[in-house]
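User: Can you model how F0G sits in this protein?
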Amino acid sequence: MPKVTYFSGETFPLEMHKVRIIQKLTLLPIEVRLRAVQDSGYNTFLLQNKDVFLDMLTDSGVNAMSDRQQAAMLLADDAYAGSATFTRLHNKLIEIFGQRYFLPAHQGRAAEHILCKAYVRPGSIVPCNYHFTTWKAHVTEQGGTVVELLKKEGLEVNSDNPFKGNFDVPALEALIAEVGVEHIPYVRMEAGTNLIGGQPFSLANLREVSAACHKHGIKLVLDASLLADNLHFIKVREPEFADASVGEIARAMADTTDIIYFSARKLGFGRGGGIVTDDEVSYKEMRGFVPMYEGFLTYGGMSVREMEAITVGLDETLDEDMINQGPQFIAHIVKTLDEAGVPVITPPGGLGAHVDAMRFLDHLPQEQYPAAALASAIFIASGVRGMERGTMSEQREPDGTEPLADMELVRLAVPRRVFTLSQVNYAIDRLMWLHANRKIVGGLKWVEEPELLRFFYGRLEPIGDWHNELVAKFRADFGDSL
Ligand code: F0G
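Assistant: Here's the modeled complex, given as structure tokens:
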């Protein structure tokens, strides 16, 4: 992290890279943005990117590559078997994690598929700090059940707890006593816990989880997709590691775990994924699924060009000037919005800023999808595309009843090295305007509700005429501004 003190006494993020390739953006007039949101059934997943000004839907596969990554892609060695590109990636993973075996996969959920095929059986119970959607789907498909053993404080929307992703170790002991160790194939810890706002766990907590698992002969699996953010937070929030390099912290984390898997769409700024382990038996138990579902053992569904980019991207993940860019931008958004009274998840996490729609739109019942309505209203007001993470992302019970989500969030993801601080400040400004006019925003109802994963492609419409009122208020306040 660059140690820079400002004369003005202000603190703001400072990018330690410059932009050398650009892509032109368009900011459409609000009336056109409203039409775009209507055409996409008030579902931000269905928007066309050409209509979007700042795409904050996700940081998956959309992080900016560096000049070194682009250059490495030209050196890719195309071979079905035994390519030098694979060896370079494998060696980089050994260097970082100190574990000998690597199974490549085309993305993170493919690694989850292999892991669940190998270890989850009907009746298995799989504890984790918190679930992620794709992993849970794979556990369930194999007949297992996910049990979340997050420490209770992790679900408090506002807190100053630096490690809301921490796992409740005594709860694991109680679960083992209740269901029997033979039903627990592994414990999964997710770095930078996605669905609770990109919140980290501490290395001390990981070590405690590891000791508890190993005492009972249970494997500890680390989902390292959001490892970079978690490494940064351990360094700046866990005093014991303030002087350690992020490389040393990564190695200390790996030393506690039996299997590590990752989405390289996030970790390594490329497009791919894989599984790492130092245990030959586990390697052989999972190995057969790679050629069966992904591709031969030396590419696993990834292109050689992407593998080269990931190798360099992993190096950049351990560059402390580089990994703090995302967390710094997110901290800036969260701090500025919080000070302005706009409800956000605190403390800031990795991945993105998370707006609390339950409080932002406290006049709406959860049955009217406040997080989805807010995501649409943000797009109308600004051209910024966020993602609904609330009741719309839940699935109905077989009897048709609808579970209401623990939290109603709109996630504004911050892809690494993509946006400038002025673009981020524009998003903050429009959110503040929307918050001042929040009572205008109404709810949504289904027009077309798919049974499976409805949030991806379901279509909704506004209840009432709030969308037109919002546009009229914008024009009244801002004249002919975009
Ligand atoms: N694990 C975590 C913690 C993730 O955040 C993701 C993806 C995956 C696994 C699956 O990886 O997409 O490469 O198959 N998260 C994306 C997101 C989709 O937008 O948060 P994948």
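A couple of observations from the model: The domain at 30-59+322-478 is CATH 3.90.1150.10 (Aspartate Aminotransferase, domain 1). Residues 58, 60, 107-109, 132, 134, 190, 194, 223, 225-226, 263, 265, 273 surround F0G (CB under 6 Å).
User: Helpful, thanks.
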